[in-house]
What does this fold into?
Amino acid sequence: MTGVPASAAGGASGARRAARNAAAREGSGAAGGGAAAESGGVQPPRGGKLAAAAVNQASVWNIANLLTMLRLILVPGFVALMLADGGYDPAWRSLAWAAFAVAMITDLFDGHLARAYDLVTDFGKIADPIADKAIMGAALICLSALGDLPWWVTGVILGRELGITLMRFLVIRYGIIPASRGGKLKTLTQGVAVGMYVLALTGWLATLRFWVMAAAVVLTVVTGLDYVRQAIVLRRQGIAERTAALEEKQA
It folds into this structure.
């Protein structure tokens, strides 16, 4: 006999059990607080990923891409103006030239703006070359269809542009072929020559445009061959580097 009533002993043990339970709850709460602290203390909003996706999607609508879209929209408008009233009315041809000139000017600015202000997007990478080829191809085909430009000239220029574009995609695994000064001069010469043919020129200006177009054709062929050479060299270097890396890994 200890002299302690059973009810008192039970009360003391109950108090100890209550104290242990309270300590356990405090420990679990502290652990939970530590986990929250490790995760930053603030739960991320449920719509965070959706908001980020919306921001990325909105970034497509920048000034560089808008200029590219404008150039794409101008293509059907240019064709309509070029072929209006049989395709030989000087007034309609002047309006077609204005549309073509705007397209060429936007081609000069959209790429520069995208690189200068970090506005490069996947849409721009795909749409920009499509817009370039579309407006130039439409002009050449219209001129040849109207009998103002020999079809072989249109074939050489468009064949070169499409061939080089395809070749870039084929060798992209080995590297990127940068635009050369000759390529930029070719683009400028082509734009000037085609623009002169779009206008209803006569006299010495008609003679001048013939020689400008001749220079554009020569630059088209020469720069095309240079791009082919660069692609062959790039492919050989890429294969050599891969072979060396494979042999080093096996060794």
In short: Helices lie at 6-38, 48-58, 63-83, 90-116, 122-145, 151-170, 181-198, 204-250. Residues 204-250 form the longest helix (47 residues). Residues 1-16, 22-58 have pLDDT under 50 and may be disordered. The chain is about 80% helix and 0% strand.
